[in-house]
Structure formats: C-alpha cells, structure tokens
Amino acid sequence: MSDRIHTLSGYFHEYQKSVADPENFWARVADSFHWKKRWDNVLDWNFEGPDVKWFVNGKLNITENILERHLFTIGDRPAIVWEPNDPTEEGRTLTYRQLHAEVCRFSNVLHEKGVQKGDKVIIYMPMVPEAAVAMLACARVGAIHSVVFAGFSSNALADRINDCEAKVVLTSDGNFRGKKKIPVKGVVDEALDNSSSVETVIVYQRTEQEVTMKEGRDFWWHDVISGVATEHQAVETDSEDTLFILYTSGSTGKPKGVVHTCGGYMVYAKYTFENVFQYNPGDVYWCTADIGWITGHSYIVYGPLLSGATSIMFEGVPTFPDAGRFWAIVDKYKVNQFYTAPTAIRALQAYGTEPIAPYSLDSLKVLGSVGEPINEEAWHWYHTHIGKTKCPIVDTWWQTETGGIMVSPLAGITPTKPAYATLPLPGIQLAIMDTEGKELIGNSVEGNLCVKFPWPGMIRTTYGDHDRCKQTYFSAYKGMYFTGDGVKRDHDGYYRILGRVDDVINVSGHRMGTAEVENAINEHPLVVESAVVGYPHQVKGQGIYAYVICDMTNRTEQNLVNEIKDTVTKIIGPIAKPDKIQIVPGLPKTRSGKIMRRILRKVAEGSMDNLGDTSTLLDPEVVDRIIEGRIE
Ligand code: 6R9
C-alpha cells in the first residue's frame, strides 16, 4: 500500500504531483501491480476522438492481481463473505485461496463452452458469490462480462444481449428478495426468444423453483463445474482490451454500453478504494450496492479484491426481516467500512432510531455514500445515529463512465461538510463550465462539471457506437469530458454536486433516461404521447412524473394508469415505473413542436407560480389544464 495518503498535506502534495506530471504519478501507482509485460508509454490521448490509452502495450490479467497475488500472503483471509437474504440461512465465506480455486474452475468451464478472448458473457444473477466468480472467470479468460441488474425485464435484458451479441448467459433459477421469490430463468427464456447470438446458458440453482431447461443450450451450474480442475492459467490481455461493458441510461432512449478496459480500470479501482476508504489490511468492508451497477463492479468486486480486502456481499434488502437488518449485519461481521446510498439511508431514517437500538455498531470506522446527492438531513442522521459522530462520511461522486470515485473526501483526512463531495482525488482535473463554454475560474462559482485530463478508469467508448461516446461526453465542451452534472464550488473550493443537467433522472440512485421511460410508456397501444420528468421525492431522491396523452375510449383513468405502469415494468423493469401518471389533454409545446419540459418539471414539483416565460407556447391553455389535474 505504498500509494496510501495519510494526511491532508499528503493529499495536497500527491494532488500537485498528479497534475504536474500525471504520467509519472500513475506509473508509480501502476508499478505496484503484477504486469506480464510492462507498458511502453503511460498515456496516449486526445479528447477529440476521443482516443485514450493508458499503460500502452502493457500485458496483464486483472485476476492475477486479485488471486495469485494474494495466494501466498493472505490465502486464508476471507475475500468474499456472503450474507443471504434470509438471516436464518447459513452464510458463506470464500477465502482468497477458495476464490482462486472457484474462479479457475469456472474459467475452465467457460473454455469448455467455447468462450474465447473477446467473447461477451451476460451475467444476470442474484447477489451470490458465484456472480463475482463469474465476473472474475470472464476476466481470467479474456472474455468481456456485461452484468445486467436482475431486476430488469426480459425486454431490457434482450436489448443488452443483442447489443453486445452475447454468446453466453449466466443466470439463476430464481432470486430471493425479502419475502419474495422471484423467477429469473423464465425471464431469460423470454429474452432469448428475441435473441440469436446466445449459444449457452448456465443456471445457478438458488431458489429451487421449477424452470425449463433447453436441451443443448441450458446447463446447471453445479453440473458443469463438477469434476472440473481448479487450476487455470490466466490468459494474457492487453491494457486496452475490454474488461467489461456496463449498460447505463443517458438522455436518449437507448441505454449505452460503457466500455472499460483492463489496465487503467484495475489501477484506478484499487487506488481509489484504498485511499477513499482508508482500508487497512484485516478490515472488513461492506458495500450494499448490487453488482448490476458500477458501484458493485468497482467497490464490491474489483477494488476491494485487488486490495486483498474482505468484501461483504449481501443478497437481501435493508428492511427484511426488519429495518434493523443492515445494522445486524454490521455487528455480525464487525464491519469497519460501510458504503451505501442516500436512498437507503432515507428509507431507514423513516423507521426512526428504534431498529438501530439493539446494535452497537462499534466496529464502524468509515461511512460512505454514493449514487445521488445526499441531503443534509440524511447526512446528519447517518453521521449521528449510524456513525455515532465518530465516523467520517465519504460522500463519493462518480459515474458508470468514470469507472471509480472522482470527487470525495479521504476518510478521516479531508475535513467533511454535509452534502459536499469535497475535493477531487489525485489525478482528477476538474473544470466548471458556464453555458457559453467558458471555464469558471476561482471559488464561489456554479456551472457544469467537466474533466480536463484523462484518468486511468475513464470510459473508452460506448460499445458499437464510438460516435455516440464522442457526442455524449466530448462534444459539449471542446477538449473536455462532460459529466452531465451541475456543480457548485464554494468559497473553500469544496465541490457540491447539484444533480443532472440533462434528461437523466436519478431514482433511488438508479439512472433513468426520461426518453427511455417515455418510449416504454408509448408502447401502450392507447398512449398517444408522453413526457416524463423527475420531481423531488422524500425517499427516492427523485420520483418519476409522467404526463400522458391517451385515447380514453372505453377506459377509466385508473385502469389506464395501472396498465401504463405495467407496461413500463414489462419493458424496462419495476425501477422505472412512474410514481405519478397524469392523463393530460395536451403537452406544452413551442411553435417548433418542442415539449417545454421546464414547465412540466415546475408543475411536478409544485412551483406553479414560477413557470417562467410561457409566451412561446403554441397553446398556453394546455398549461392551465395540466395544473388543474396535477397529482399531489
Ligand atoms: C456511481 C454511480 C452517476 C450519477 C452522477 C450523479 C449521481 C453519483 C453522487 C451523485 C451527487 C454523489 N451521483 N454519486 N450525485 N453526489 N455522491 O452512481 O454511477 O449509476 O452511473 O450514476 O449519479 O448525477 O452523474 P451511475
């Protein structure tokens, strides 16, 4: 852990070095990894392409840096500690030695099934250790994993399978979530009716519910691993070979496949993990995210395991069997670093402090927050009732595209301020831009958040459509990566993220494109047109408010609203289901036919006396009708 920062002056010193000479800075960090062949150049880049390469011509396998690297030093240390949904079921622990064996074994299985370097493997699994084993086995054989959150519908799954032309799907029979047993394999079967690239499906048995297995295509996990060798020689990958594709929402309808590569991602995930959380050998670390999101990739699997950490993996939900579950787990495993989302904090806050009372939470040293802005009230609750005022909170701002944490306090080192992500990590050169494309220099400024210089964990492309990557991230401001977030830099130079400035809404820390939700709503045969906006929601951060024009013949409003909700659940998944659906006679449009979302947003949030200029509207009448029918 030679790259560990220990003091605030150490942070400033490292930050200065990282800006003065980024190549040397990152070369030094990268030197602590095992490379099969060292790189020729540290960095080749331009943001016009964009074309970014880190550790050029370096050869490695990321899993050697997770498994072989730790085998003879900390082989018996728990790598993954799994806590099942049902607390009465026995948990499981995989030590680094056992993880090595399992990953090797499944790598051999993938080989046997014909998976080769560059092939795509979809992972659509519950939160079980095998999901992490699957990711690492893909990485070990040089295949590209694309994890799809198991809450997505068969349509959404099929879109992702087809976009990356996956050869293999790894899944389960079903999934436990709280009291529910959710069918999973059936969803995969439906998705595969609309996909042609998949040759093999491997099914992990979790719920023992009945499933259909297609001869020659579908295999049980326990069958395919039985008798398979637990030794495997990791395949050599290039620094810039794709490690994984992860789909995320943007402002257009179609989710995009964010591409991360082996070398840079590896270096960045480990560096940020150790410094932000101030992880020390032997600590027990728990991130409550799902591996279907980037947070699960970087901070349940890759970052912690590259650091030789013990990473807890929890299958269930925060409120089952009761609202004390998180705290029961913290005490049970003596968790030292706990990393969760503001939406979970707010949801638990609503139960009061009683569910916390039976637990000591003594082991906690660091608390983390990710996914959306944390409001001050939730920050204080977390700090007082969970951290007992002794644990620093790291409010970590980053994105699927950034691969790892970008702006965050270093735990116990950077003085914190509620609701502020504070300062950029070493290597991260931020810029705040105004709408005219001018950089806002100095403190006490507010604008759009950009990054001026590459960092190792950054997005390389959007899969299959490089131009989309360029348009989305590198075109708004010349020579800069545009994050899509608004930001304020206060008088101390501290950063506070203000939320998305594009058509992306953040529901419980999940990114949803408004266009994506509208497309799903429009699938309902009676829907003529729709417009979706976000509005402030007590627990979810933002809720989804949909304005829909419908053909109402033979339908009651309530029926239609329910049907539309079902349609969205079917097309995307329950996370995209609108909280409020208002049937409207028309939408506020400009003369050129553009929907004025600003007005819809204002109505949704209830600030009707502050609608701004409506003079360019084609039919200002419509606004009155919308206000009359507004859903509280
Ligand atoms: C890691 C992750 C990214 C978007 C991002 C921003 C919001 C994430 C935040 C935050 C304020 C934080 N976001 N962390 N906003 N403070 N600490 O969440 O990735 O799912 O791609 O979402 O989430 O708006 O642009 P992803």
In short:
By secondary structure, the chain is α/β, with parallel strands linked by helices.
Topology summary:
Layout: H1 8-20, H2 22-30, E1 41-46, E2 51-56, E3 59-60, H3 68-74, E4 78-83, E5 92-95, H4 96-112, E6 120-124, H5 129-141, E7 144-147, H6 154-164, E8 168-172, E9 174-177, E10 180-183, H7 185-192, E11 200-204, E12 218-220, H8 221-225, E13 237-238, E14 242-248, E15 256-261, H9 262-277, E16 284-287, H10 294-306, E17 310-314, H11 325-333, E18 337-340, H12 342-349, E19 366-370, H13 376-386, E20 393-396, E21 430-433, E22 445-451, E23 461-462, H14 466-473, E24 481-489, E25 495-500, E26 504-507, E27 510-513, H15 514-522, E28 527-537, E29 541-550, H16 557-571, E30 580-583, H17 597-605, H18 621-628
Parallel strand pairs: 4-17, 6-7, 6-8, 8-11, 11-12, 16-17, 16-18, 18-19, 19-20, 29-30
Antiparallel strand pairs: 1-2, 3-13, 4-5, 9-10, 14-15, 15-23, 21-22, 22-24, 24-25, 26-27, 28-29
Bound molecules: ligand 6R9.
Structure commentary:
The mean pLDDT is 96. The protein contains 18 helices and 30 strands. By secondary structure, the protein is of the alpha/beta class. α6 packs across α7. It starts with 7 loop residues before the first helix and ends with a helix. The protein has 2 domains: 480 residues, ANL, N-terminal domain (Rossmann fold, 3-Layer(aba) Sandwich), CATH 3.40.50; 122 residues, ANL, C-terminal domain (GMP Synthetase, Chain A, domain 3, 2-Layer Sandwich). A 7-stranded mixed sheet has the order 5-4-17-16-18-19-20, sandwiched between helices. The chain has a 5-stranded parallel sheet with strand order 7-6-8-11-12, sandwiched between helices. A 4-stranded antiparallel sheet has the order 21-22-24-25, with no helix packed on it. The chain binds ligand 6R9. GO terms for molecular function: acetate-CoA ligase activity; AMP binding; ATP binding. Its EC number is 6.2.1.1. It holds the Pfam family ACAS_N.
